[in-house]
Amino acid sequence: MEWQRLIVSYIVGFVLLNVLLGLMAYMTWFERRVLARMQHRVGPNRTGPFGLLQPIADGIKLLAKEDIVPANADRLVFLVAPLLSFALAPLGAAVIPFGDTLHLFGIDIPLLVADINVAVLYVLALGSVGVYGIILGGYASGNRYSLLGALRSTAQVISYELVLGLSLVGVLILSGSLSLQDILREQQRSLVLGPLTLPNWYILSQPLAFALFLIAAVAETNRAPFDLPEAETELVAGYFTEYSGFRFSFYFLAEYINMIVVSLLAATLFLGGIDGPIADGVWWLAIKALFFLFFYVWLRATLPRFRYDQLMGLAWKVLLPLALLNIALTGLVRLWGIGAL
Amino acid sequence: MTELSATHFLLLSAALFIIGMVGVLTRRNVLVIFMCIELMLNAVNVSLIGFAWELHQLTGQIFALFVIAVAAAEAVVGLGIVMALTRRTDTVDIDELRQLRE
Amino acid sequence: MTVQVLVFWLLALVAILGALGVVAARNPIHSAIGLVLSFLNVAAIYLIARAEFLAVVQVIVYAGAVIVLVVFVTMLVHPDDLPEFHGRRPLRIATGLVLGLALLAEVSAAILAHGLRGTPGPWTDDTIAAVGGNTRALGQVLYSDFMLAIQLTALLLLAATIGAIALARPEAVSERLAAARRVMTISLAHPRGLDQPALPAALPEPQNGRVKEAGGGRPIVLARTADEFTEQPAWGEWRAR
To answer: In CATH, what number does B6-89 get?
Structure first.
């Protein structure tokens, strides 16, 4: 039965990957429409009803463009770096549970690709390897602006990854497991506070960790207001200045896939994932993730970009101490048994 | 040799360690020498984990964990030294960095 | 040969190729890529040995932090200054290779000649599963039998952090300005320089086009036009002497 489970895993993974790629395409449409509304514009509305065919048109355009390799470039690294970014982006979704086991044709189909016992660390590890797409792309372009963009971006991603990891420690202390399935199970219990009965979602017991996670996640995905690597007024387009055609689109799409994966992760870790008031299921996860995606666009429309020293100062002098404080508090609460809610 | 055993891990570990050693002996760039040292530390981890797996012990894994922690600390200080060196002498050539000897 | 052995050697092969790339590549960035490749494959081998936690830690710490830092520093160093761009030492490479191959043969012979000796411990797959997975078992052993060691590791990391900050601390702005002021004087096309091929008696013989006064004052650079003196001194160069 080993091989059967393996094949089921592969099929679930394949379906998930395709759904993710489709969502990613429509995320660009969603962002442009919402952003346009916020800026009193209409947004793309010519290609198909409500501009719904716009992502497809964009995709065709990008694929048809010339693939330019600068003369100064480190050729092989230049060609591989965007693929690395793009290939690593959707892997995080493999550990996110999308629902309970499905019974179909007499086979148990678990609605997640892999329930590994180090799931949270796995996602963090993917993030830390994902840095290579940025740093190698910037280096290989043979261009000062790209190099500077890559250096900035790497420093940013490393710093905020630390905050991201430490903000999750509180959740891990409460749940006592690194498996997302277990974390989800913990959150499905209910929390009784006097007359109130609330779901045991970790946003309620770990509000500080949630805020830190959200900030770090925005920085980790290089989105506004932390989109310094592509600060066009100073660095042209940062590490992907020299990229064109579909290699550029790989970077671009990796960013959107990262956004979706991080949103799914935030919904699973802090908002109870598939848990809802009525009829638990993947739709609740979708609604929560959509909220986070909207939040991303909302931030971009609202906040100006940080200056570089402000960005690093925020991570090291504000967020990191807060994350450590949160760990200490959670540990104390857990130790004295108040956390046995 | 038909079943996976600690011998396989040890062979891999030896190969990685010696490649790293040759790198330390032959290269001139401080940064590459540094990477080769990391390679050697990592090779030690492979053998530790191989032993832990074969003997059903966790001590090997815990040792590997400590090796990783020490390697990280070493990386931070080592790279700090390289940065300070390049700022002062503008070279990463190990053959030219001989102020302490002279 | 079982599938497990096959997978092991496939991963090991890529790990070894990556390691060879580290040693052979001229460009340090390519070395770093080889190293990451090697580390990732070793992490996969840890998975075969049921050390999931170690595998992930390997990826996060080695591939994600240490090598990123190395690449970072490599980019800050000017690529033309890298020694292997100027020439290698063939004798040293030959010696290294011979020594390495001899050692490899010896160690392999020793490994193959002797089996593994030791008392098996209690942590079989079943006992680990009973505790609740590799991470939990590791945590229990780590925070009971190795309490002192982990505290010392924490201390080591703290010391390393402080050391790195002390090493990488930039100089104060005032120091830097002072250094800039005392770096050097350039005398451009001075009539005396053009007319008189010989130096004034008070100055010693120039070395590399630079004359240092006996009193230890500012060094004087002899140049007739601005184009003759295009080499700018690096920040540390004069301070280091």
So the answer is: 1.10.287.3510
